[in-house]
């Protein structure tokens, strides 16, 4: 019923394509006069289901090429997602990752595990070994939290120094004990950046080193 109190009126609809895990669907979106139409079910300007976007990001991070992602989406959902769409989604994902990676460290972490790990990554169709420095802190309740991860840094003195200074700049202070393998670059840096903290050799690394030379 039309009246002076009403702010908007129904005025037909328009078609909107939406990609779901079951394929493309066409939605009849109501059009209103006087006010914009909004729904909590589907966000404004969204063209794909959230699970679809997550799958696209996971495929790319797993090393699947952009062209291969296009072929997979067409085979699964009947719609070929453009390379630009994949790039934009990955850009958003990396922004969230970088925000988390550089977050302030407001908690207290008396014990911190540090290590350098090597992972395989697909880059331009070529598999490469990538070095990542990682720090895991233990909070006052005994829970572990990843405090930092830096890709492409070697396990030398300069890399460890830059890594620990980065953690300290973000708020990592009052560390009582660092735990890690017997890496001399790490040991020298801990003494420089956190002179009051002590160091303990990681038992897991110690056992691995022993078992690698002891006859079975």
Automatic annotation (TrEMBL):
Instruction: Give the InterPro entries listed for this entry.
Output: Transposase_mutator (IPR001207)
One Pfam match, by short name? Answer: Transposase_mut
Please give the biological process terms from Gene Ontology that the record holds.
DNA transposition
Claim: DNA-binding is one of the keywords in the record: yes
An example molecular function term from Gene Ontology annotations: DNA binding
Query: What are the UniProt keywords, alphabetically?
Result: DNA recombination, DNA-binding, Transposable element, Transposition
Query: What is this protein for, i.e. what is its function?
Result: Required for the transposition of the insertion element.
The UniProt family comment states: Belongs to the transposase mutator family.
What's the protein called, per UniProt?
A: Mutator family transposase
């Amino acid at each position: 019923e039309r009246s002076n109190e009403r702010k908007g009126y129904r005025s037909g609809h328009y078609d909107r394509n939406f990609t779901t895990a079951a394929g493309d669907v066409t939605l009849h979106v109501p059009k209103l006069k006087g006010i914009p139409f909004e729904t909590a079910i589907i966000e404004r300007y969204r063209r794909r289901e959230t699970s679809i976007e997550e799958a696209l990001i996971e495929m790319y991070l797993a090393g699947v090429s952009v062209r291969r992602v296009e072929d997979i989406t067409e085979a699964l959902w009947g719609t070929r997602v453009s390379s630009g769409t994949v790039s934009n989604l990955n850009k958003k994902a990396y922004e969230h990752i970088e925000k988390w990676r550089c977050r302030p460290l407001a908690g207290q972490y008396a014990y911190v595990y540090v290590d350098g790990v090597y992972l395989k990554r697909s880059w331009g169709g070529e598999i490469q070994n990538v070095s990542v420095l990682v720090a895991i802190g233990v909070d006052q309740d005994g829970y572990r939290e990843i405090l930092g991860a830096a890709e492409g840094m070697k396990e030398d003195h300069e890399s460890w120094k830059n890594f620990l200074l980065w953690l300290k700049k973000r708020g990592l202070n009052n560390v009582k004990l660092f735990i890690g393998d017997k890496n001399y670059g790490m040991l020298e840096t801990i003494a420089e950046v956190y002179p009051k903290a002590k160091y303990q050799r990681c038992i897991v690394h110690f056992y691995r080193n022993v078992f690698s030379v002891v006859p079975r």
